[in-house]
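Dear all,

This email documents one entry for the complex benchmark we are building for the journal club exercise. For each entry we list the sequence lines for every component of the assembly. Then comes the predicted three-dimensional structure of the complex as a token string, followed by one or two observations. Please use this as the template for your own entries, and keep the labels exactly as they appear.
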Amino acid sequence: MADKMDEKKVTPRSQDFAAWYNDLIIRAELADYSPVRGCIVFRPDGFAIWENLRDELDRRIRQTGARNAYFPLFIPQSFLKKEAEHVEGFAPEVAVVTHGGGKQLEEPLIVRPTSETIINHMFAQWIHSYRDLPLMINQWCNVVRWEMRTRPFLRTAEFLWQEGHTAHATRQEAEHETLLMLEVYRSFVEDFLAIPLIAGRKSAAERFPGAEQTYTIESLMPDGRALQCGTSHYLGQNFAKAFDIRFLDENNELQHPHQTSWGVSTRLLGAIVMSHGDDQGLRLPPSVASTQVVIVPIWRKAGETAKVLSVARDLAGKLTDAGLRVKNDEREGVTPGFKFNDWEMRGVPLRLEIGPRDVAAGEVVAARRDIPGPPGKSKVQLAEIVTSVRAMLGQIQANLYRQAKAQVDSNTRQFDDYAQLRAQMEDEGGGGFAELYWCGNARCETRIREETRATCRAIPLNQSPDQNGRCIVCREPAAERAFFAKAY
Amino acid sequence: MADKMDEKKVTPRSQDFAAWYNDLIIRAELADYSPVRGCIVFRPDGFAIWENLRDELDRRIRQTGARNAYFPLFIPQSFLKKEAEHVEGFAPEVAVVTHGGGKQLEEPLIVRPTSETIINHMFAQWIHSYRDLPLMINQWCNVVRWEMRTRPFLRTAEFLWQEGHTAHATRQEAEHETLLMLEVYRSFVEDFLAIPLIAGRKSAAERFPGAEQTYTIESLMPDGRALQCGTSHYLGQNFAKAFDIRFLDENNELQHPHQTSWGVSTRLLGAIVMSHGDDQGLRLPPSVASTQVVIVPIWRKAGETAKVLSVARDLAGKLTDAGLRVKNDEREGVTPGFKFNDWEMRGVPLRLEIGPRDVAAGEVVAARRDIPGPPGKSKVQLAEIVTSVRAMLGQIQANLYRQAKAQVDSNTRQFDDYAQLRAQMEDEGGGGFAELYWCGNARCETRIREETRATCRAIPLNQSPDQNGRCIVCREPAAERAFFAKAY
């Protein structure tokens, strides 16, 4: 086993970021390639991260008043066509079921790429009066988009996500919901996944097909490329009109409701791997790690084994009882050093080493995954182990965010000169976040995209505008700064 | 609103069981029909039951050592053909994707009807040595089977389920796993869903396509029809051979592992509705009810309102803090009687009524959903409310099981005479469980099925065989008794 593992080395991140990412996902057994084009298998260690993430986000979504439901996987092809922009955006990438039960279907069914159409068809049956509003539904499910280029987690033909769909009596309420969910996502990704973000709105060109306004949380990966981590859309009355959703308001007049939709996906797993990983492998935030603490019992002479193992098991029990996710690595036939490397590669936040001398002294050695080498090691009294471990996990979570934030900040630059922006974006890899004044005109945005491959990632919500701002391209007055970057 | 509800009366169960079932699901807002043939929408009140059920079963499955993972929705058509019986069983009912991203696919993809094929394809990559065994994977997902006749929850084109897939070094271990999971299902459905079961093995004719042995949990619905609630299969080495899964055993020899698969689905929601519901509506076991306790504050004069509402809210807070799922119904414009009926229809196990006199006396009236009328009502001291409510919910759970068990028992008959069996099965509806000696010969089983429409539901695991048992059809010696019934 040890031999087999040694064969499959992970490419160092510093050497080739893309190869490192792909190697690491396979080697840490987060996912595997499948025989179906563009689809991956989520292996238990990877799926457990998704489950931890999902359970916490689900709790936060429920707190806003939304309730979970489940709608059909299939959507009649005609539904997609009811909203003009929506069909234009999604028709090119749908998978189509043409046969069922051995017969050709009268109307082909598409496999949902997103569920606005079928959910709003049902909303039209359920919404009659202002008393039925707000209607706030969330769905955890699989969706399919036939993407040309796929990468594990980041872009796959099938992926898992949640999609929220709400209907409100007024524009104001719906706009408030859109921004509320953006904030739910922002705080969740920053606090729980330790990934620093910019929250803002999208330019018209980058909007969700059918939305009046799209808001986004964007992060910057260590290779200098931006990753969209979640979006929240204000849909206006577009889908309500297309699907004939109407309600009697308090004055007994028929109105179309104002709507929102919002989602995050398994792409977040890719964000975690890239934002926190290093040359040694994964580094998982304690909040989502399937194993938060690994115990490695160490013995040399046969006589020491029983005592060390007994203390290690006792320790594992105590930490598990305290609600922590713990593994006790009693594997034989591999060295402690091998185990250290293995668990570091798998990203376990905290390792507790326990040998005969530690047992005698009533302590263990704790090694933090976020601080390499001796500075990350400390002795912890067994008597205070639960308190100490909890405190250290909290510090690791905070430190992973700090490190990721420093990385993003060091790769975020303000540009006022278009030639300098082009120079920055010239290399093959990323180029970081470019913060710049943009007039808002699509022509300038297109020119930046075509000449630098950077797109408008977000126009931040909180601006402190400079009265003298001028568009980096056309030099016309510009009221807002925007973040541009090459993106995944 | 009251008027609208009154319009949609539920057909009494005693009058038309099938109509009652369909009406109730719509009226209690558990599910709705969708625009996609044979697919339903799980509305929040129905999906919450599934979520409660799923979370508890997931916990029990994990305790056996299985871990969750996720495999692709799509399966290459050629995979299905690798196991001869499997393709014969599933090919007629698959949905086929022929186009993706605007192009015809080189090889069509089927939407998974079950995942043995793709999971075992992956197992072949992951299993190399006896050290990789047992491999125990569980998946919660959607599956699609193009059924001709569909009914909400019981048989739908798309449904939700969990499917476990395991590989073991020996036949003995795999057989043990098959029976262990059957027992996990049995205790879960009996204890948590309060549905009485017969656990046994299937006849050869009723086996899962590709299995060597299929075990089942079967219940009997109040209309006298059996419902299969879950199955656990011993697959032998059939799929291991078809997908070339091999491992080096401890003697360094290549072996095929022995495998199992097992699953339960959203069909269980139908079992809950049918087993427990009555003319007044749903009756949900407290374990899975999305609302376990509803509080109905009652006031007549304006001066009473504030005090009653304040005590009701305080009560709701106290019960919620104790971990119970509580609703406080403060709706205005509908009478208390209307609210009582509404929550009875929705199956809430316990109702707490609180009026000005109750407030003054420091008590509430508790009304149990499982015992109609005055006998189900009692006064509960507010000071002891948490303890009392917990105890009553426990009693309701136990009583729902007892009532369902009495129903099944009263509809279970032993038959020794074939003419009597035929007479019993003659009416249009069910016919109950028929317990009888059967020689095990397929010819006799076919004759029963063709002449009575009853099929072999289960051959119970624990038999106390009569040496003189004779097959009800051919009168040849028969070693085992079997349960036959008309089935959903």
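Observations: The radius of gyration of chain B is 25 Å. Chain B has three domains: 8-276, 293-395, 412-485.
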